[in-house]
Design goal:
Number of domains: 1
CATH class: Alpha Beta
CATH topology: Nuclear Transport Factor 2, Chain: A
Shape: globular
Radius of gyration: 15 Å
Number of strands: 6
Oligomer: single chain
């Protein structure tokens, strides 16, 4: 086993900043910013509520035809876990302020030379809120 440091403060701060910037872009429907946070690769995967997207091109195309996330979305229970300074997961629950849907979101982040990128994501809705 290596001497992998879990949740080093600098790594947590940098991926948290990336996640929060991504979330703001999601609420503001800033498509170019959102695209920039996903790894530009055919190997990037995003499983959504009703779609399975394989590759950055499919994710970008989906964003341009889907209903944007409403500005009333709120997050809770967010957990950021880093492994070393190049790999992280971010898990959160959300409430959509427009539909009152509750859901959860998980992202796998990798730090590349150009910064943190989502390499895999999963979004799902829940029937009732859960802690």
């Amino acid at each position: 086993m290596t001497d992998l440091i879990v949740n080093a403060p600098d790594a947590v701060a940098s991926v948290t900043y990336a996640f929060e910037t991504y979330e703001k872009a999601l609420l503001d429907n800033e498509l170019d910013v959102l695209d920039g946070y996903f790894w530009s690769s055919e190997f990037t995967v995003r499983f959504g509520v009703a779609e399975n997207l394989y590759g950055a091109d499919a994710i970008e195309a989906y964003r341009r035809q889907c209903q944007p996330v409403g500005p009333g979305r709120t997050l809770h229970g967010t957990v950021v876990t880093t492994f070393g300074d190049t790999f992280a997961t971010v898990s959160t629950q959300f409430r959509d302020g427009e539909t009152d849907n509750f859901g959860r979101q998980m992202q796998t982040w990798v730090r590349f030379a150009e910064g943190w990128k989502v390499v895999a994501a999963h979004v799902s809705l829940m029937r009732t809120p859960s802690e």
